[in-house]
Amino acid sequence: MAELPAALRAEIQQGYRAFLAQRGLRPRPGQRRMIAAVANALAGADGAPGGPVVAVEAATGTGKTVAYLLAALPVARALGVPLVVATGTVSLQEQLLLKDVPELLAATGWSCRVALAKGRGRYLCNLRLEAALDAVASRDLGLALFPDEWPLIEPGDEALLRRLAEAFAEGRWDGDRDAWSDALPDPLWRGLTAERRQCAGPRCRAFRRCAFYRARGQLEAAQLIVANHDLVLADLELGGGVVLPAPERALYVFDEAHRLPEAALRHARGDCRLPPTLHWLEQVERALGQLAGQLGGDGSLAARAAEAAGDCAAARAALEALLPDLEALLPPAAGSAVHRFPLGRLPDPLRAAAAALAARFAGLAARLADLHEGLYGALGGHPSLPLPLLEEGARGVGSFLARAERLAHTWTQFAAPDDRAEAPRARWLERDGAAGFGCAVSPLSAGALLGERLWSRCLGAVLTSATLRALGRFDRFAQAAGLPGRAQCLAVAGGFDYARAAVLSVPDIGADGGDADAHTQALIRHLPRLLDPAEGSLVLFASRRQLEVVAAALQADADLPLLVQGRLPAAEILRRHRERIDAGQGSAIFGLASFAEGIDLPGDYCRHVVIAKLPFAVPDDPLQAAQAEWLEQQGKNPFRELSLPDASLRLAQACGRLLRGAADRGRITVLDRRLVTRSYGRELLAALPPFARSFEDDP
Q1: Confidence of residue 420 (pLDDT cuts 50, 70, 90)
Q2: Where are the alpha helices (DSSP H) in 53-170?
Q3: Angle at 571 between CA 566 and CA 572, to 5 degrees
Q4: CATH number of the domain at 498-694, please?
Q5: At what angle do helices 6-23 and 101-108 cross, to 10 degrees?
Q6: Distance between CA atoms of 358 and 52, rounded to whole angstroms?
Q7: pTM for the whole thing?
């Protein structure tokens, strides 16, 4: 481990003392340890790629945000590179920008240029707004050339479009959707933004006024950039340095880092919904044919459009030919059904057909790329073609190109043989209704991808969360995140006296989670007795079906005020819950896994967390099944290696909903006796914070 230079150590120590003094706080042991660990680890960053990586599990109450900012900002400034802080949720982004960073800078007196990084979808495309206004003025809202790419303009939208245009032209609005004071309908907004392939960049006539590139210019001057995991991963997919700084010129902090491996897997996965793709190809073929006709004044561009239309027809024919063979593999029953290929291996005839289809989509993507470049090249001035046609054509073809590239990637991964020495890709077919179905392909782990794109390139990185360990160990997270051998891992204690603040109980309700039907009926009988209708409660379920059955049975109980996930948006559930508690009433939220992490309900908002069932993953998830199969193939126990560690992490996250501040008090009730009757249950218990325990038999 490199030694932290004396000047940096003094700057960090002075900053910490100033922060504590300004806030009237005393040093927290866990926070001090985290500051030292992060600063000492990043001291090894020498400006070369493949720098230090440190993972810190910081229990709730540590003050981890202040810790990593105090430690990492001075190191980044000393290296002359930006610090990119990536979060897993919008709420934490907002907390960083509006509270944590301003408070830290005010207390320490440090100067720092801060910027928020967002994807293109949050910014207005000037030309698309201009085209929408032209369409409104001419009453030509059909736009037959690219109907699927056009804003959905409703009768009342004209005034809104004009307000947007006026505010942007006068400088009263910067084109950031989040800075607009009123709600902007999603269907309309999607048509007023531009994807990467729809954007001409510096060749656009409105480039100097572009909202996205103006914001990107601010990023280039920023010393601290607040982003999110998805934006970092999307930038890395493009090679890095497209939206955010290149990894070779940045330090990173990944907050809520337990979400990073799953987010990386989502980005690596490929999907093709088959009937919708056929419909899309038919529409693209027709649109390109119309474009070829309108480009008649330029034989070269018209010919390219016609050739691309022909490639669409060929890809559609190849997909139609493959469709019956794929559908025959699925169970015939309507509803959800999955066919997973064992060890990801396709039958040879199917692999050959998939490879041929991948080649068709790759050819279509290449043809569209050629046409796309030709249309943008003509924007500089064309003697016979109107500028609006070229602009609209380039945007439409860019959208087609982006989807064709994704489809080519999906089918290439679906057909490509796997290296027998490495983990295979998971491949499966899935029905999503009586008629719709599709194929999917995914790596079993994102570790190799993160290692190649991030850890081997960045100057240094910090990964932190309240829950990184599973069963008290970092092994599972290190494997899932692909942490390099040089990575350091440590856990620091939070600021809570768990034994005084909370009691964990595991009452006997007559059935455990191993018998789904009996357990559901037991929950219906016992939950009304367990929940205090006058207080704030959070009840977490591992199964949507169980949640719905229990909620339906208890909804008629007028004394038990329920807010059920799925019946209202999550934000509205939280708003109503807080409103009820503020009014001195009780409220109980019934939620799934998404309510078991990232939800902040301090104080009276949550005095009781009920965990209905141990949070083992759904056994029929195709990716989880493929991961288990590969472990078995290696002679390993999937339950010990996969299911149990993941359940440990989820259980810790669920318990973490109770104590959000030092003054919080309450209780946690687990309604699954396997936690105390099975040997693995004792392992799960041992990995939880040291709550006071009450394992009485009767609730």
Answers
A1: confident
A2: 64-79, 90-95, 101-108, 126-138, 157-169
A3: 75
A4: 3.40.50.300
A5: 110
A6: 39
A7: 0.91
